[in-house]
Amino acid sequence: MNFPRFLAARLRRRTEQRLFSATVTRIGIASIAIGLAVMILAFAVLFGFKGTIQEKLFSLSAHLKVTRYTLNQSYEETAMPRKSRISEQYKSLSAVRHLQMVAHKAGILKTPDDLQGVLFKGVGSDYDWNVFQQNLVEGALPAFQKDTSDSKQVMISRTIAKQLQLKPGDGVIIYFLQNPPRPRKLTVTGIYETGLEELDKQLILGDIRLVQKLNRWGPDTVGGYEVFVKDFTQLPTAEAQIAKLLEPEQDLRSVVDEYRPLFDWLSLLDRNLSVFLTLILFVASFNMVSVLLVLIMERIPMIGLLKALGSPSWQIRKVFLWQGISMILKGLLIGNGLGIGLCLIQQRYRLFPLDPENYYMSYVPIEMNWGVVLALNLAVLGLVTLVLLLPTFIITRMRPVEAIRFSK
Fold first, then answer.
1. Which of 51, 212, 374, 379, by CA, is between 20 and 30 Å from 103?
2. Residue where a domain stops, chosen among 229, 255, 281
3. Are residues 80 and 43 located together in one domain of the fold?
4. pTM for the full model?
5. What is the pLDDT of residues 339-382, one digit of tens each?
6. φ, ψ for residue 247 (rounded to 5)?
């Protein structure tokens, strides 16, 4: 029989019968439960927030972009061939998932009452609409013709649609900025929204053949390649693999470098979360130490009696450690139920809204990472158990005679 565990179980039942001890014990359990629940929620919201922003960004801007090297700082790219070492060998790269051809051209959308400067992004049949589909809020995706004629269908953002009072099916004139300006009549097939103001206020999607025609390019000429990786954590690997295939006139840019302020802001969220979690663990540990000290002080006569009967200090300390571990396990059980339950409810019903203008999304996003949940449980159990060793040192300094007299 494990004597410390047996005695800890008996003391736990006795403690539940004492009003003060039971209240203190519940406070300790509650501190663990609330702390764990808050940490689970914090990580789920952080992962959901970062994942949602990255998905929205990558739906319009690839992980890596390959263009022709130029000192020109305009939105439009310098012509480059469709076929190159990268476009022909990217499927052999372990970190790369997809490559697509694009071309950009600046223009002005004009209606009878208003106008708006835009950046026309020309895409072809290789464009991954599955990634973009999540942004569609009204209408349908463009259906580009398979013949050699360019399509006049275009996707615009909700921001542009509100400003120009456009809806799916409406026609709109675009004046491409070149000398002389070239007007084209386009048909709005759908409206998208990412919540990322920098993209929504200017980017529209249309047929790459229209850009090729305006620039007097042939079908084998494009503005650049957009490269997507299999996993965002493999971005440095994919960048290194693509860099080995670059030709002398080609330039490679990463989405992290292109949108540095956004990724710096997401990194700042990680640092803030670390400070927040440290404070929660500190409070939970402090509460558990206080609770265990109270339980030890209530059992000073029993400690003196056990020492007088020959029990070593470490054996008595283990009795109270088992009591503390029992409270931690109860707190973890309640905390997991509370934290995971709230996450699943928010994930399904989206009860907590956000202002899209400030947070890029209309509700609090949740992304569960079960590996992190397990790690949090182990971290709380290990750290708080380790901290509980501190108050039990008092037992080693108690003398049997003085401890027995304490009750008189």
1. 51
2. 255
3. no
4. 0.83
5. 999 999 999 998 999 887 777 788 899 999 999 999 999 999 99
6. -90, 160
